[in-house]
């Protein structure tokens, strides 16, 4: 029985791998609330090959989040690729009736929002910084922010 469970676990792990994913990482935000001056940073090192990559911003929120949308400022820099860009992303979190439309259960929901495609050079280092630009200084209910980079 243990052997069967081990084989099943290995098969699920292999099936769950996405060979196109170059980077996937989430950072926690402060439990008391994510402040507008609390920058969440990601550093992607050793890009495997020169290519164009798709980027997504991941968000995990609880029902304590008080808004139906969230506006992010995402800045990106990569030296070898001469990338220096700042984007604003307004992410809708609810449907037309006001229901949270992210994946998840009763208390937490997860969202992914496409950013942009970027061309990076082999061995490049990409630095991504994310802040929010909402009217409220500190936002409760945001638990994690993440970046996923894939090869399309």
What does this structure look like?
The protein has 152 residues and is mostly beta strands. The chain has one helix at 2-16, and strands at residues 21-28, 34-35, 40-44, 51-62, 69-78, 83-92, 103-104, 108-120, 126-132, 138-139, 142-150.
| N-C termini distance | 40 Å
Number of helices: 1
**Unreliable sequence segments:** 4-16
Shape: globular
Average pLDDT number: 86
Radius of gyration equals 18 Å
Largest sheet: 5 strands, antiparallel
How many strand segments? 11
Q: State the secondary-structure class.
A: mainly beta
Side-by-side strand order of the widest sheet: 1-11-4-8-7
Q: Considering DSSP H and I runs of 4 or more, what fraction of the residues is helical?
A: under 10%
Percent range for β-strand residues: over 45%
Order of helices and strands: HEEEEEEEEEEE
